[in-house]
Amino acid sequence: MTIKLFNTMSRKMEDFQPLVPGKVGFYSCGPTVYHYTHIGNLRSFVLADLLKRMFIENGYDVYNVMNITDVGHLTSDDDDSGEDKMEKGAARENKSVWDVAKFYTDEFLRDSADLNLLPPSARPRATEYINEQIDLVQKLVDLGYTYQIPGDGIYYDTSKFASYGALTGGAMAGNRAGARVEFNDAKRNPTDFALWKFSPTDKKRQMEWDSPWGVGFPGWHIECSAMSMALLGPHFDIHTGGVDLSRIHHANEIAQSEPITGAPWVKYWVHSEFLVDKSGEKMSKSSGEFLTLSVLKNKGYDPMAYRYMLLMGHYQSQLAFSWDGLDAAANGYKNMVRRVADIISDKQPGAIDSEVFDAWHNKILGAVSDNLKTAEALVAVQELLKNSDVNAATKISLIDFIDRLLGLRLVESAKKQLTLENIAVPAEIQALADQRAAAKAARDWAAADALRAQIDAAGWNVIDTKDGAKIIKKG
Ligand code: AMP
Ligand code: ZN
User: Same structural domain for residues 431 and 400?
Assistant: First the structure.
C-alpha cells in the first residue's frame, strides 16, 4: 500500500520510499524528565506510536528510537541560556537530579503504557551517550564548525552551514533576534548554539563530565544527533517531534549531523501540532499549568477516551482541549466498545469472509497510511461496526486488526464491559433502583436523582434504556 507523509522539509505530501526496502527506521524526540509529561507532550508521542503501528500493519520491519532527555535542556531553548531544566527540577523538589530523572521517567512510562503506546525499539537516555556526544562535538571541532566562548562553552557557528534552518523555510541568520530579549553577546550569530557547556565555576553541578575542552555537560541538541546515529546509523528514514522543535532543535540537529553524514541526514520530517487550551495557548510544562493523564484518570476518564479524542483530530492541526470535548470522546469510545461487546458476544458469528475482510482492511489501513488520517479511519470503523451485511466473524477479525492499528483496546474494553454487565446486582442496589423507578414514575425528580447518587456512591451505574433501567457495576 502507498504510504504518504507530509514532509516538513519539502512542505509537501510525499510517497514514502524507505532507505532499505521493507525496513523503516525512525527517531522521535522524547520527554525532558524534569517534570510530569503532560497530555500535550503525549500527543507528540501518540504520533510516533501511530506511525509505528501503521508501518507494522503495512508489513514493514520497524526500528524506532525515542530518547529520554535527562541532561542539558536549558530553560531558554532559543538561546541556550538559563538553567538546566533537570537541575532546576532537582532544586524545586529537593532531590538529586538522578532521582528526579528516575521519578519522572517512571511516571512517563506509566502514562505511555496507559495510553497503549508501543514501546520503542530503543529508549536511550542522554546521560548514557555522553561519549558519543563528545565524539560528535570533536568531529565538528576538527571540521572547523565551532568556536569556544571562554567560561561558557563550545558553540556551533551556524554561518558555516549554508542551509541552516531549511526545515522552516531557509536561511535564518538573525531570524531569531528579537524573539527573546536576552542574547548571548559573545555568540558570533544569534542562531549559534552550544554543543558543550562548561560547568559554572561558582557552583557544583550534579551532572558533569570530563571532556577535551573542560568539565561540563552536553548541549541539548547534540544528544539527539548522537543517539540517533548510534542506534539508527548515519542516515535514517523519519524524524518526529512537536512543531516547536522544527525551528531550533531540529534545525540544530541537522546542522550538527550533515557536515558528518552528508545531506540529507534524514529523509522525512514529521511534526505534530500542539494541544492548546480554549484561548489557543500551547499547553506547556514550564508554565506549570498543564494536565496530566493521571489527572484525567482520577476524574474517571479511561485513557482510551483521550486517545480516541486525539485520533478524532489530525496530527497536523491544533487540537483545543476542553472537558466537553473529552466527554464527547469518552461517549464516542463507549459507544464503539458497546458495539464491539455485542459483536464478540454473537452466538452465530459465521465464517470469515476474506473478500469483505480485505475491502474493509484496505479502506481503514488506506486512511491511516494516507498521512495518518485517523479520523477518517474511525468513521470507517463506526460504519463497519454498524453494518449488518458483515458477519460477526469477519468483524471480529477486523476489530483485532483495528486494535493493532489504532491501539484503542476495543476488545479488551468490550470484554471488561461484558464482565461488569454480568456481575449480579446485589439486592440492596436493586432495591434502590426500584425506588428510583417508582420516584421517576411519580415525577419526583429530586428523589430519583438522590437515589441515583446513592447507587453511584455504592459503585454502580444506572443506565436508562428503552427497556427500562440497567444496573451495571462501575469499571
Ligand atoms: P519536552 O518534554 O518539553 O522536551 O517535550 C516533549 C515533546 O512534546 C516535544 O516533541 C514537544 O514538541 C512536544 N510538546 C510540548 N508541548 C506540546 C503541546 N502543548 N502539544 C503537543 N506537543 C507538545
Ligand atoms: Zn530531540
Answer: no
**Overall domain count for the chain:** 3
CA 119 to centroid of ligand 2, rounded, Å? 17
Does one domain contain both 18 and 52?
yes
* Residue 181 clears pLDDT 90, i.e. is over it: no
Question: Ligand 1: residues whose CB is within 6 Å?
Answer: 29, 31-32, 40-41, 43-44, 69, 241-242, 244-245, 274-275, 282-285
Q: What does the buried/exposed string (b/e) look like for 455-471 if buried means 16 or more CB atoms within 10 Å of the residue's CB?
A: beeeebebeeeeeebeb
Residue 28 Cα: closest atom of ligand 1? 10
In a domain, 395, yes or no: yes
Whole-number Å distance between alpha carbons of 45 and 38: 11
Which distant-in-sequence residues (6+ apart) come within 8 Å of 7 by Cβ? 13, 14, 267, 268, 269, 270
Lowest-pLDDT range of 87-101, 145-159, 179-193, 372-386: 179-193
> Do 387 and 447 fall into the same domain?
no
Q: What is the per-residue pLDDT across 8-62, written as a single tens digit (0 to 9) for each?
A: 999 999 999 999 999 999 999 999 999 999 999 999 999 999 999 999 999 999 9
Ligand nearest to the CA of 126: 2
Q: Which of 33, 41, 277 to mutate to test the pocket of ligand 1 (most atoms within 8 A of CB)?
A: 41
Spatial separation of the C-alpha atoms in residues 2 and 65, rounded to whole Å: 23
- Predicted confidence at residue 89, as pLDDT, reads 84
pTM of the model: 0.92
pLDDT digits (tens, 9 = 90+) for 431-467: 999 999 999 999 999 999 999 999 999 999 988 877 7
Q: Tell whether 257 and 156 lie within a shared domain.
A: yes
Cell for 70?
Answer: 535527562
Tell me the residue length of the chain. 475
- Cα(294) to ligand 2 centroid in Å equals 25
Q: Give the model's pLDDT for residue 116.
A: 98
* Between residues 429 and 172, the one the model is more confident about: 429
Same structural domain for residues 378 and 399?
yes
**Structural domain of 249:** 4-276
